[in-house]
């Protein structure tokens, strides 16, 4: 694993929702890859809601929006990480996996610290896409992987 990105969302009592993406490359912080997204001004949530009203404390919806924006890249240029860490539980992890899938990114097998594996996709499918469109996905909550 050469590059790792972590995603977290924050809000103030359901308003002023923002997401941060931090990047590490070759084991060192990579500030040029850090991103901050103001999610109160997004066009739509995956459930059709949203707009200028924001997410009203909807962390999974905000994670979906942040990961979708990250996959869209800046001016169409996308350099996805090898591993994407999500700060959240099962719902946030599922939202991130859905955003990756909707963006055409395959979630590949990831390994937990205990050696457990995620079987969300086959390695054959991921290898056919090449490294630019595949990402390992894990949650910071209790070592959960995207398939749990």
UniProtKB/TrEMBL annotation:
Q: Which Gene3D superfamilies match?
A: UvrC, RNAse H endonuclease domain
Annotated region (Disordered) at 111-130
Fetch the Pfam families from UniProt: UvrC_RNaseH_dom (PF08459)
Q: Name one GO molecular function term.
A: excinuclease ABC activity
Task: Report domain UvrC family homology region profile positions.
Answer: 1-100
Q: Which GO terms describe its biological process?
A: DNA damage response
Q: Which domain of life is it from?
A: Eukaryota
Any one GO cellular component localisation term in the record: excinuclease repair complex
Q: PANTHER family recorded for this chain?
A: UVRABC SYSTEM PROTEIN C (PTHR30562:SF1), UVRC/OXIDOREDUCTASE (PTHR30562)
Protein's recorded name: UvrC family homology region profile domain-containing protein
Query: Which organism is this entry from?
Result: Micromonas pusilla
Lineage of source species = Eukaryota, Viridiplantae, Chlorophyta, Mamiellophyceae, Mamiellales
